[in-house]
Specification:
Elements lengths: L7 E9 L6 H10 L4 E6 L3 E6 L11 H6 L2 H16 L12 E7 L4 H12 L12 H5 L3 H10 L5 E5 L4 H14 L5 E8 L5 H10 L24 E2 L1 E9 H6 L6 E10 L9 H15 L8 E4 L5 H15 L6 E4 L1 H4 L6 H9 L2 H4 L1 E2 L23 E2 L5 E8 L3 E8 L4
Parallel strand pairs: 3-7, 4-5, 4-6, 10-11, 10-14
Antiparallel strand pairs: 1-8, 1-9, 2-3, 6-8, 9-15, 12-13, 14-15
Helix pairs in contact: 3-6, 7-13, 10-11
């Protein structure tokens, strides 16, 4: 087992979001205020809104492979391949058995099962028409497993079911496996194919938590008085994580260093968040990073644009950071909606370039700030140039009361 204090760095990021298919495109959209939410229609639910990705799936997969596999698998493959490319990692020069794939997901298998049940209904429910691809498509490890087959990686792989905290959970698992000495490289992050299952839309609609707005780009509006729910989105973000020692050995680009993390549970309600437990999660992540709240420059919020969810998180942030000067707060879902299992990983990725450009991207669509969400340092409407960005704390929470926080520091040798 390696030293648990072993430094873990980020050397590459591959992503697809509703408003960009690379880190540069995504960051550009965040600084320019470009939303990726658009009109969408899905059976049984009808016209709605969603964040839809447009990445070039055939860049890394043949059409036959796309037909056999899943959307989540395709998102994962694209993101992992792009991450390896961004990290300048030559797979021919490393031991592939020492590369692990750890991807967070909110749910998996619903899309394929819904599609098969629907198709079966067109054939008088004759089960001979049920796809023989169904089982490998729906097993929980599918997205990460599809990556290993596509990239020829015989090392460990699995997915981490952590509701909407899954993107952070994937990163945390990657860090832990590196520190355990189980792998030399971790492909870690989160993915989501959520827009392809009508069930998630129908459930949020029944709950009164599905966003509506005449202008799709303004539908996702965390912290705004007129917010009315979640915009369901798909996406993915995968990081190449390595020990600092290995990254230096191959002269890899270093985008940041993961210095702290925490996960805990509300243990109180399946849906309503617990701000005290969220605050505890942030404090534990900072403690492990050996940082004080005032050391943080950006708090990337989870806020989904549900009334109580935003209020509870703001109370937690206020409890931890109080009126700390120089702590800026933003939100990325206002641009892309809720990418579920990919949310935390994408939101962190959108903020990482701040280490270099010293700009905090804003929260958009806040026309009238809810007083209960009025946080010191909340950046609204326009990007904020700041003197320095050294530390980012990334929040990501999920149903059944699962909370996560990841702390990333600007790399200093």
């Amino acid at each position: 087992m390696q030293d648990p204090r072993q430094r873990i760095v980020i050397t590459g990021i591959g992503l697809t979001a509703p408003n960009g298919d690379s880190l540069a495109e995504f960051r550009g959209a965040l600084l320019e205020g470009r939303s990726g939410v658009q009109p969408y229609e899905i059976r049984y639910v009808g016209p709605t809104l969603a964040g839809i990705c447009r990445f070039e799936a055939t860049r890394y997969q043949k059409r036959k492979e796309l037909r056999k596999g899943t959307r989540a698998g395709s998102v994962s493959i694209y993101c992992c391949q792009e991450a390896v490319r961004a990290a300048d990692l030559d797979l021919e020069q490393v031991d592939r058995r020492r590369i692990g794939v750890f991807l967070g997901i909110t749910e998996h298998g619903n899309v394929e099962t819904e599609n098969e049940v629907y198709s079966l209904g067109q054939y008088n429910n004759e089960v001979k028409y049920w796809s023989h691809h169904h089982n490998p498509r729906t097993v929980a490890n599918n997205p990460a497993g599809e990556v290993t087959i596509n990239m020829g990686l015989p090392g460990p792989h699995y997915t981490i079911g952590a509701a909407c905290a899954a993107g952070n959970a994937g990163l945390i698992q990657g860090v832990q496996m590196l520190r355990l000495g189980e792998v030399d490289v971790a492909l870690a992050g989160g993915v989501s194919e959520a827009i392809h299952t009508f069930g998630i839309f129908a459930s949020f609609k029944a709950q009164g938590a599905l966003a509506e707005h005449e202008d799709p780009a303004k539908a996702s509006r965390p912290f705004d008085m007129a917010r009315n729910g979640i915009v369901v989105s798909e996406g993915g973000a995968v990081y190449v994580l390595e020990t600092l020692e290995q990254a230096r050995r191959r002269d890899a680009p270093i985008l940041g260093e993961i210095v702290g993390y925490a996960m805990n549970s509300d243990a109180t309600d399946a849906v309503l968040p617990n701000s005290e437990r969220q605050a505890e999660c942030m404090r534990l992540a900072l403690e492990r990073a050996r940082l004080e709240p005032g050391d943080v420059d950006i708090v990337s919020t989870h806020a989904t644009a549900t009334r109580q969810g935003d209020i509870k998180e703001c109370a937690a942030v206020r409890a931890v950071f109080g009126n700390a000067e120089g702590v800026y707060v933003n939100n990325t879902k206002s641009y892309i909606g809720h990418c579920m299992g990919a949310a935390g990983a994408l939101e962190l990725a959108g903020n990482l370039p701040s280490f270099e450009d010293k700009v905090v991207h804003p929260t958009i669509n806040v026309d009238e700030l809810d007083p209960e969400c009025a946080l010191p340092g909340l950046v609204i409407g326009e990007p904020r140039e700041v003197p320095q960005v050294d530390v980012i704390l990334n929040n990501s929470f999920g149903m059944l009361g699962i909370n996560s926080a990841v702390v990333v520091r600007r790399f200093v040798a």
